[in-house]
Amino acid sequence: MSRALPKYNKRRVGIIGGAAAVVLSGAVIAGSALAGEGANNEGQDAASPGTISCPAVEGSLPAIPASAKAEVDRNLAQLQTQIQEANQRLIDTVGQGGPNFVQNAILGPLEDKRVAALNRIETAIGRAAAKPEGLEKLAPCQLDQGGAAAAGDQAGAGAGAGADAGAGAGDSGAGNAAGGPGTISCPAVEGSLPAIPASAQAEVTRNLELLDTQIQEANKRLVDTVGQGGPNFVNNAILGPLEDKRVATLNRIETAIGRAAAKPEGLEKLAPCQLDQGGAAAAGDQAGAGEEAGAGEDASNAGNAGAETNAGAPGTISCPAVEGSLPAIPASAQAEVTRNLELLDTQIQEANKRLVDTVGQGGPNFVNNAILGPLEDKRVATLNRIETAIGRAAAKPEGLEKLAPCQLNQ
């Protein structure tokens, strides 16, 4: 995910209940209920939530090798689904307000998801032909209201974003006070890298720049959301999503190096960042939680529950079991598959902890938007890594993403 490019968030082109008008000059598709292209932020008013439009992708792709066709089609379909889901979130959160709610809680996360899907398309094509670069520029989407991007009001602010520039380490679940938001610091990465093969240098450099951009964006979100409060806001809405982005970017660095030399492992330990206030991680107050980090893999039903946290009993999150759906794992892939299965477990544990930490926060869709949604995104990324690891030495399993959605059991 090149973050040196525009800000990144997630989702894709879809058409609901009507025709779509395609405007390729701006690579923009405006859909009747979900579609499109462009980039913007803001919110919507209670009467008219508007629709989200995103840049068209298919017209920007080169010839797709036959061996990559199924994977590319699957990710194009996922982009479509992402936009549909984002438009549904727009409807579900009408009237929740703060001037940056839609950007932070809907458009930002959508851009991140689109970046991930676009990167998977690049990688799929690149296995059999020249790898297309720069599809990330198609990731940002915009809110169209009455045919134009419009500012609005929603409350409870959402998914934090990334930004990178700095070196530090750690993980902090703090917020920031109205007086001073502090700054976010993250572990330095370059010093932990092995010698970079010449053929990987450009891609590694691009992802290192993306890490810097992610921190810059996260620090800007910190400033933009000063005074919004709840003791876990910064962790849930800024640091958590930032960590997810860093994990994805660090994995791309590992993969780029691994194509031409021994693949470095364990860079994910550099993903967590912390909030420094007066030189130390500090707890604070921000409100309205966003897309979160965390939550992994257990076993149970799939699904998505949009229930709000219950002051009396937060419940628990359960997710579909993965191991029983895997084929025989080649010996060369066993360590990587095991590591990602453990990560799925950790993700669920973190999500359940968030469930407890945020009891009493939120409106009717808080758990879905701030915990289950981000958890599903993490699980998709982790499941894709499992598929890729197995596919290097045997037939690549497809469709593990169907195991990504989790549910709240109360």
Structure at a glance:
This protein has 410 residues and is mainly alpha-helical. The protein has helices spanning 69-92, 101-126, 198-224, 233-258, 331-357, 366-391, and strands at 21-23, 28-30, 51-53, 142-145, 148-149, 183-185, 274-277, 280-281, 316-318, 407-409.
Structure description:
This protein is mainly α. It has three domains: 1-155, no CATH class; 157-291, no CATH class; 294-410, no CATH class. The protein is 38% helix and 7% strand. The chain has helices spanning 69-92, 101-126, 198-224, 233-258, 331-357, 366-391; strands at 21-23, 28-30, 51-53, 142-145, 148-149, 183-185, 274-277, 280-281, 316-318, 407-409. The strands form four sheets. The chain has a three-stranded antiparallel beta sheet. A hairpin with a 2-residue loop joins strand 4 (142-145) and strand 5.
Which key phrases capture this entry?
410 residues, mainly alpha, 3 domains, 3-stranded antiparallel β-sheet, 6 helices, 10 strands, globular, disordered N terminus
Mean pLDDT: 72
- Element pattern in H and E: EEEHHEEEHHEEEHHE
Helix and strand composition category? mainly alpha
Number of strands: 10
Helical percent range? 25-40%
Number of helices: 6
**Alpha carbon gyration radius:** 20 Å
Question: Quick one: biggest sheet?
Answer: 3 strands, antiparallel
Distance between the termini: 36 Å
Point out poorly predicted stretches: 1-45, 147-175, 279-311
Shape: globular
- What share of residues are in beta strands? 5-15%
Number of domains: 3
Cross-sheet strand order for the largest sheet: 3-4-5
